[in-house]
Write a structure and sequence with these properties.
- By secondary structure, this protein is of the alpha+beta class.
- The chain has one domain: 3-Layer(aba) Sandwich (Aminopeptidase), CATH 3.40.630.
- The protein has helices at residues 10-24, 34-39, 71-77, 101-115, 129-137; strands spanning 2-4, 43-51, 54-62, 84-92, 119-125, 141-147, 158-163.
């Protein structure tokens, strides 16, 4: 079941994230402080998927970071930065994939964005071919490329930018 993320979920989610990192290389660089990375800043909402007491998925919805409010998102969506919501930190346990976990988490984020009158956007590391294909097959439109600023956990990582 999908439910709002709670503070006590963060440590178990770091364990789950570590398994995703080992399997898929996501995130591209392991964060210095994985709990802070997961908790995020500018969060509108965050959800987990719980199955038989275990957390098997996560997704957060945030306002764009000032240094990552890519102009391509604004141009493609015809919305100012204040009207955008970024899908972030989507990951699913490798053994729970292809069971609708990601889709249900995305639906929760879509509902929250609609309630706030926000347009959904996201960025994906260009080497993450499976994620890129996932978003494309789910109707997201690629609108450009960007590079993470220095100091970010991605350290100059090249990104593909998408709009719902």
């Amino acid at each position: 079941m999908v439910r709002p993320r709670r503070d006590q979920d963060l440590q178990p989610l770091v364990v789950l994230l570590r398994s995703v990192y080992r399997a898929d290389g996501y995130p591209a660089n392991w964060p210095n402080d994985p709990i802070r990375w997961l908790a995020g800043a500018r969060t509108i909402g965050a959800w987990t998927f719980e199955h038989h007491g275990d957390l098997v998925g996560h997704l957060a919805l945030t306002r764009p970071d000032p240094d990552r409010a890519w102009p391509q998102w604004q141009q493609a969506s015809q919305q100012p930065c204040e009207r955008l919501a970024v899908m972030r930190r989507l990951f699913v346990a490798p053994d729970s994939r292809r069971n609708g976990v990601a889709s249900q988490l995305i639906e929760a984020a879509e509902r929250a964005a609609a309630e706030h009158g926000l347009r959904l956007v996201l960025d994906v590391a260009d080497h993450n071919r499976a994620a890129i294909e996932f978003w494309r097959t789910h109707g997201w439109r690629e609108v450009g490329e960007a590079t993470l600023p220095p100091g970010d956990e991605g350290r100059g990582l090249r990104l593909l930018l998408f709009v719902a």
